[in-house]
Amino acid sequence: MNENSFFSAVKFELSNAQGSSSALVASIEASSAKPLDGNILILYCRLVNLRPGEQKEALWYRRDPSVNAQQHLIVTGTKVVDQFGGRLTASRRGDDLYLITFKPIYREDRGIYRCELSDTEARVYKEHTVEVFSMPEFTVKPQSESVRIGGRAEFTCRADGYPKPSITWSRANDQFLPNGGQTHNEEVLVLENIQKEHRGVYKCTAVNEMGEMSIVAEIQVSFAPIIVCTDKDVTQYGNYDVDAEVNCIVEGYPTPTFEWYFLDESGAEHLLREQDDYLKKYRVDNSGPDDLRSSRLIIANIVFDDRGTYVLKAINELGTARGEVGLKVRTDRIGGSDLTCGRISYFVVALLASVVLLLLP
Asked: What is the reported pTM?
């Protein structure tokens, strides 16, 4: 190598060394360590070791952490390449601080964000993982079911959110689940060999550190009617000013239809209907929820002939049930008046009362 060539090579190497940059990406910081879904988030990228007048820009990339995805360029300097639906802006403060701002950031924006120096032979960058925190949100909701006794029901409840929510099943009023215990900590709740006592409300609760959400589903258990009469026998004094009541509790689903009958001495059943006259000899009051109802028969102005057996029949598509209540009417002489009177006396009084009403102006 001659002298001129040697000095030219040295000059080239010195020039190249002087032109190389020592700029680095010092850090990426976020405005919130736990950004919430729907809130504003700012990422800051700070450059260091910039020489006076050196032109370097920050390139921003995003990578989805859930898949083997490539880096996706979203910002060059202050120019936004991917606007995230108009939610992303980019800015710069001085020569060394670059910012990107999400207004707002959503759960789907989570990922690995990279700030990289532009115009460098070796890639110079820092990365920051962004997790977007959110309350639980149900992605699969349980549906109410109606099953027959002995059947099977399955509830599914899933929730999204960050951190990942835990799922807990429970029953209203801290009742025990059919599989034992008061809680079930899986997404799917399976109920086998369902009985009528399993009917009711089941609650799915999704919980993470941001809060909790609950949703309910109901099981209706179809079964034939069951009748339990609170008193097998009722005793009442015969008196036109006194009513007698007989009560029965009816379980069954679908909701049964009710009919009251009077059983005469020959064993014949006579359907009792609510009367439209002002005396209303028979009245029926049914109350309570669909699958557990009370039926009350009110017999007005008791007379001796009202004694006997009263029968309640409950019918639904799965069967029929029957309940009986005996009514005894006492005929003791009270206060000097003989209370022995029959249905004929009742109708005579009713007829006289009707005549009196007609004669009134």
From this structure: 0.66
Q: What is the largest CA-CA distance in the chain?
A: 154
Rounded CA-CA distance 255/223 in Å is 10
**Residue 125 predicted with pLDDT over 80:** yes
Is the Cα torsion angle 73, 76, 82, 87 positive or negative in sign?
positive
Short-list 145, 144, 221, 154, CA closest to 191? 154
Q: How is residue 168 written in tokens?
A: 């807990």
- Tokens, residue 12: 């080239």
Q: How far apart are CA 135 and CA 163, in angstroms?
A: 9
Q: Strand, coil or helix: what is 197?
A: helix
**3-class SS at 173?**
helix
Dihedral (CA of 171, 175, 179, 181) sign: positive
The helix (run of H) or strand (run of E) holding residue 72 is strand 72-76
Integer Cα distance of 22 and 136 in angstroms: 46
The predicted pLDDT at position 332 comes to 65
- Among residues 124, 119, 109, which one has the least CA distance to residue 63? 109
- In angstroms, rounded to a whole number, what is the distance separating the alpha carbons of residues 355 and 361? 12
The CB density around residue 312, as the number of other CB atoms within 10 Å, is 25
Structure tokens at 4: 């001129």
Share of the chain above pLDDT 90, in %: 58
pLDDT tens-place string over residues 16-66: 333 467 889 999 999 999 999 999 999 999 999 988 877 789 999 999 987
Which range of 115-124, 156-165, 264-273 scores highest in mean pLDDT? It is: 156-165
Q: What is the mean pLDDT of the chain?
A: 84
Block residue for tokens 């249905």: 343
Residues 159/160/161/167 CA torsion (nearest 10 deg): 30
Contact of 149 with 225, CB cutoff 8 Å: no
Residue 21, CA distances (Å) to 45, 121, 126, 217, 332 in order: 18, 10, 17, 65, 119
Residue pair 101/91 in contact (Cβ under 8 Å)? The answer is yes
Closest CA to 316 of 145, 149, 144: 149
